[in-house]
Structure formats: C-alpha cells, structure tokens
C-alpha cells in the first residue's frame, strides 16, 4: 500500500471539510439571549435559500466523509481482536476521549462563569443553567450520554467512540454477511428510520462503509478520471433538494446528493497533487483541523450572539454577508489560537487535540516535489487521523 499517497490525499480533504462543518453550524437558528429571542431565520427568500443550500445541502457530505475515513483507518490492517483491539481502545482514549472530556469541561466551566458575571449574563440563555442542577446532568453534558454534549459537535466523537467499542461486531458482520448488512443500513438510512438514538444511522452506515474499505483493502479513491464530474450532479441534486418542501422525497434527493458528493470529493483530492503550493497550504492547515473543529463552538454562537446583540435587526444584504463573514472570522480566530498556543505550549496542545498536528507537520516538512501526480499513483483506503495504536501511523468530529 502507498501510505504516503493515502495520507496526502486525506490531508487535502480534512481542513476544507472542517470549514464546511463550521458553515453547517452557521445556518441561523433562533438566538436565545437571557431576556429575549432574536430570530435571524426571518430573512428574504434568496438569503434563506443560499444559507440552506450551503449549510443543509452542500454541507451534508462532511460528516459522512469523516466517518468513512474513520472506518478506513481503524480497520487499516484488515483485522480486529485480541491485543490489536486492546491497543486500538487505548489509542482512542488518548486521541478521542481525553480531548472530548477536556473541551466539554472547559466550556462547562466557562458557562458557569458567564452565568454569574453581570457583563456576560445577558448573552447567556437562562435555560443553560439547568446543566448545573445535578452531578448527573453535568456528566451528561460532558459525555453526551442522553443527547449531544454541551459542545454540540462532539456528538461525532461520542458516536465514534461507541463504534470503536463495537468494532469487533462490525468486523464480523463485514466478513459474514457479504454485503447484506451494508444494503440494510443503506435502506434504513434512505428511509430516514431511526432505530436507536446513538450512534445515529448516519454514523453507523458510513463508518461501516469505511470499515469495508479497510477490511478488504479497497481504495475509496475513484481511479476513473471522469469521477470528478460527479461534482455536477452533487451540486444539482442539492440545489433541487433545497428548493423542495420537506418530506421523504427531499431526504431521498439529499441521500443521492451525498453519494455523488462523496465520489466527487475523493476524486477531486487527487487533483490537488498537481499543485505544489496548494498542497503545502492544505497540509499546513490540516494540522489545525481538530482544534478548529473543537473550538468553533461555542465561539461561533458567541460571535453570532454578539453581532445580533450589538447590531439588532438587519436587512437581507447584511444577513447574507454575515453568513459568509462570521464563520470565516471564527475559523481565523481558531487558527490564530492554535498556532499561538502550540508555539507556547506544544505539549498541552498535543493533549487537547489528540496529538494529531505533530505527525501532519512532519509530513508537511517533506519535499512536496516527491509527491507523485494523480495518474502515477494508486491509492489505498484512508481514514480519520485518530489512530494511535502504536504501529506506524498512516495518516480528521
């Protein structure tokens, strides 16, 4: 397997997908202050359509892609069980559980302070104080045992941890059912059936797809040059889906669009290899991806609340401009914080990010000219960079 080629193409995808996640969460919802509710959803048709097209349409591929990558990497050796499984569990405690607990505890502490400070209390919904009613509610807020953790995007990490725990069962299903499990999961997903609360059917399906790539040694990267043309049906299907009223057909179009978008994203990653400068930029940014993922909420909500608190009612042009500007500001702030903190306390940053950035930076330091072009390279399966099993690391919720 060409692990170098796999790592490079994964790193090309990681930061753009994290940026897309930030825009997913930038889709306006009613903003709750301590004494009022400001609803920025009440915008003109065009503004609302653009926001939904990006956040609820184009953004739909981000989470499935990350789960596919996670499954690929977890099963990169094509096996599970015994000491191998034990090493995987230990590695995920370091790369997933510890960062999850840290970020949720940090936000819980910040929320407690904000609720009791007159200068910040006006920006905090009174209902947020309910999390401090009992020890069990605080534990739930950190681990997401009954719903999303207090840092909402960490539902992805929680679901990933659950899937890691049940990975021997997924491995057995992949080997024993010959595709029937995959077919059943696809049908359940496309019918929008929710059999259990967590992990979600989306999490299970796409992690399982990634597991199949890893277990059977199949590359997720399309080899046909025309695979990049799937970007057009992806854009069109999501456009039609956004314009449709709610219902099963709308969800069915979304599923089709996600499928086309996944193929397009994996195919387009190969073309980045033809541009050395873009390679260097994306690999550099990928080292900060987990930090941006972890920090963008509640930072995004804080910036949104401050904006609407200070400016008040806005016209459509302002709302649309802020939809694009505010996430960009949040991403920039997170990047500045990451590189500044890493310069001051690299060990601390390694702990709170699962030590993801260091290996990527080592890769980025290699001469980019050594990377082969798309037509010269065959790529095996890839996955999320959360493998810390002790074996040489191939390569992000």
Please report the number of helical segments: 17
Provide the gyration radius in Å: 21 Å
**Number of separate strands:** 2
Order of helices and strands: HEEHHHHHHHHHHHHHHHH
Helix content: 55-70%
Domain module tally? 1
Low-confidence stretches: 367-397
Quaternary organisation: single chain
Strand order in the largest sheet: 1-2
Strand share of the residues? under 5%
Span between termini = 26 Å
The residue-averaged pLDDT reads: 82
Task: Please describe the biggest sheet, giving its number of strands, its sense, and whether it closes into a barrel.
Answer: 2 strands, antiparallel
The shape is globular
In terms of topology, how is this protein built?
Blueprint: H1 3-25, E1 31-32, E2 37-38, H2 45-57, H3 62-74, H4 82-115, H5 118-121, H6 135-143, H7 155-165, H8 167-176, H9 180-190, H10 201-215, H11 231-243, H12 248-271, H13 276-286, H14 289-311, H15 316-344, H16 346-352, H17 356-364
Antiparallel strand pairs: 1-2
Written description of the protein model:
By secondary structure, this protein is mainly alpha-helical. The protein has one domain. The protein is built from 17 helices and two strands.
Provide the descriptors you would attach to this structure in a database record:
about 400 residues; two-stranded antiparallel sheet; 17 helices; 2 strands; about 65% helix
């Amino acid at each position: 397997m060409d692990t170098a080629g796999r790592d490079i193409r994964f790193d090309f995808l990681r930061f753009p997908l994290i940026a897309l996640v930030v825009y997913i969460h930038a889709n306006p919802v009613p903003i709750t202050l301590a004494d009022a509710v400001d609803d920025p959803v009440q915008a003109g048709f065009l503004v609302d359509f653009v926001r939904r097209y990006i956040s609820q349409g184009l953004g739909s591929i981000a989470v499935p892609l990350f789960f596919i990558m996670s499954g690929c990497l977890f099963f990169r050796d094509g096996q599970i069980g015994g000491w191998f499984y034990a090493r995987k569990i230990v590695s995920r405690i370091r790369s997933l559980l510890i960062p999850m607990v840290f970020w949720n505890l940090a936000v819980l502490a910040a929320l407690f302070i904000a609720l009791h400070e007159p200068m910040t209390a006006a920006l905090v919904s009174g209902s947020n104080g309910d999390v401090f009613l009992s020890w069990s509610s605080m534990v739930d807020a950190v681990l997401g045992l009954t719903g999303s953790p207090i840092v909402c995007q960490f539902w992805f990490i929680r679901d990933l941890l659950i899937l890691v725990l049940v990975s021997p069962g997924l491995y057995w299903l992949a080997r024993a059912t010959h595709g029937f499990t995959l077919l059943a999961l696809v049908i359940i997903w496309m019918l929008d059936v929710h059999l259990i609360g967590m992990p979600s059917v989306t999490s299970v399906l796409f992690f399982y797809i990634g597991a199949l790539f890893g277990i059977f040694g199949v590359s997720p990267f399309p080899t046909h040059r025309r695979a990049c043309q799937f970007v057009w049906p992806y854009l069109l299907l999501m456009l039609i889906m956004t314009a449709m009223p709610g219902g099963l057909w709308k969800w069915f179009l979304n599923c089709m669009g996600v499928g086309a978008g996944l193929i397009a994203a994996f195919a387009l990653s190969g073309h980045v290899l033809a541009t050395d400068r873009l390679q260097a930029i994306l690999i550099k940014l990928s080292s900060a991806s987990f930090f941006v993922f972890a920090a963008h909420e509640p930072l995004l909500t804080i910036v949104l609340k401050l904006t609407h608190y200070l400016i008040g009612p806005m016209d459509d042009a302002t709302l649309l401009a802020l939809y694009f500007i505010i996430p960009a500001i949040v991403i920039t702030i997170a990047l500045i914080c990451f590189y500044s903190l890493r310069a001051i306390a690299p060990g601390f940053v390694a702990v709170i990010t699962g030590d993801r950035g260091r290996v990527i930076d080592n890769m980025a330091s290699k001469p980019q000219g050594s990377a082969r072009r798309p037509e010269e390279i065959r790529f095996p399966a890839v996955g999320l960079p959360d493998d810390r099993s002790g074996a040489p690391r191939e390569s992000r919720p």
